[in-house]
Write a structure and sequence with these properties.
Layout lengths: L1 H13 L14 H23 L11 H23 L1 H4 L18 H17 L2 H29 L1 H9 L5
Length: 171
């Protein structure tokens, strides 16, 4: 499923008029497909981590506090970003350019939070399968801004271009 997500993201980057993400509307196939795939990937990632728990090489006690710190950092950053951006913008249907809160430091703090959450879970579960799935998830989070930026430039024009010059994509 992550591979399908990856293909759809790459198609959007190569052909912005295709625009899988962000979805054009709540009733579009893109909206339904993106959120169905996201839900399936998240649930699958969690269960794979449980079923394949401790199959990798990090069989040491310190992986738990390190993984937990990374995971909780991701949850905190992601939650702060989500509450600042709001539900509609988070699901790809927002109408306002948000530049406050965590968005004054990074144009993509939700993706930073997602990456930290993924890495934390990978470390905690110590699973070969979560490492494979997690790396694909990280790649998706790194590609997502490339699917959004042309749309944001078109939607918000000069305001977004100024914001883009002032605030880094990630750090």
């Amino acid at each position: 499923m992550e591979v399908l997500y990856l293909v759809l993201f790459v198609m959007t980057i190569r052909r912005p008029d295709f625009r899988f993400w962000p979805p054009p509307s709540r009733r579009s196939w893109q909206f339904f497909t993106s959120w169905l795939l996201a839900a399936l990937v998240l649930v699958g990632f969690f269960f794979v981590g449980l079923l394949d728990f401790n199959s990798s090489i990090l069989n040491t006690w310190f992986r738990f506090p390190i993984g937990l710190i990374l995971h909780l950092s991701g949850v905190i950053i992601g939650s702060w970003s989500f509450t600042t951006l709001g539900l509609l913008a988070t699901i790809g249907l927002g109408d306002e350019l948000i530049t406050k809160g965590p968005y004054q430091y990074s144009r993509n703090p939700q993706y930073i939070g997602d990456i930290l959450h993924i890495v934390g879970f990978m470390v905690i579960t110590n699973s070969w399968m979560t490492w494979i799935i997690g790396v694909l998830g990280i790649v998706l989070n790194l590609l997502a801004p490339l699917t959004e930026e042309p749309w944001l430039e078109k939607k918000y024009g000069e305001a977004y271009l100024r914001y883009k010059k002032r605030v880094p994509r990630f750090f």
